[in-house]
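User: Quick one: structure for sequence A, then sequence B.

Assistant: Sequence A:
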Amino acid sequence: MSEIIENEVAQKQDLISKLQRWFNQNQKLISYVGAGIVGLIALFWAYNYFYKEPLEKEAANLLYSVEKAFEKDSFDAVLKGSQGNMGAIEIAEEYSGTKAGNLANYMAGVALFTKSEYDKAIDYFEDFNASDPFLGPNSIGLIGDCHAAKKEYAKAAKYFAKAGKKNINNLTTTHWLFKAGAAYEKLDKWDDAVDCYEFLKKNCKDAANTKQIDKYINYAKARNGEFKAK
């Protein structure tokens, strides 16, 4: 037993000595790499502190008047700005790497949608980083609304379903999956409609507007020839 322990100790000492030799032989390389890492950290900090953070504040201040116009449904002012202030389109372009620039994409998309400029609206919704739990699904669903307005119902249904299954909750999920179900019914795609309604039954059973979900499921199944009386 003592021989085994002695062998393990010897192996560990041998490994330690090899590591020490490697370290001694490569001290210059290690110092360069260490200095490089420190330099990168310093550059990252400087970029955020001296450039990114001030830019974020500047963009947020510029977006304030756009947000006020958006709340009032003043969509011309949202797009073009008012009283010498930038509009959402300009902010989205000039401050594209900021949170405010990202939100400007969403506001521009909504404004363009209300003005029936559907293709342009789609472009802005697609540029919007849809990580927000509510605006994210809505931006996707609004792409569906744009396609529906263009009578492209298959594309609309696809985006409604995608929006409904992103960030599952009782608000956006029910809103967009009911729209998806209705769109699939319009396309006579009853299997897909059933899938939407059954997803709601499973994942949003506590939502106020899913209390009658079995009626939607049974209707879609009946139209698909699958109805079974209960």
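Sequence B:
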Amino acid sequence: MKTVWKVCDTTLNFLLAMCGVAITIICLSQIFARFVINSSIPWADEACRFLFVITVSLGAGVCVRDRSLIAVDLIPEKLKGKVKFYYSLVLNILLMCMAYVLLVYGYRFAQMNMKQLSSSMQIPMGIVYLVLSLSGLLIIIYTLRNIVFDFKERAKKGKNI
């Protein structure tokens, strides 16, 4: 199972890195074309915008995986033992509920916009919006993984749940 997770994690990290590289190359190409050739690339702005949306959406799953979402940790620092465990569990369940909404309504939104084409690249906007559902799915999967890990860690310490 660890191999499957490692492959998933590595693939996601690679996709995010490739999106970042693509954004950089496209932006630099656009700058070069505008200021050196005096002509712009018509699809560059739109491609960068779509790649940025993809990067942020997939990055949300990575932040959940690595437990690095922005949070105020004033309350968890004060908690100890069972209370801290259950507090974390409730937060993870709420996060999964939010991700479920993102998954379901992101998919519906993508379906509604499959016939609308983007202005420059002429791709269906629903494809771009589908990344919202993918983000929700990644958040749910990684949150479940974190919950299972927390239960295993608690069991290793020999504490009752």
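The radius of gyration is 20 Å. Helices lie at 2-37, 44-65, 74-78, 81-112, 125-156.

User: Thanks, that's what I needed.
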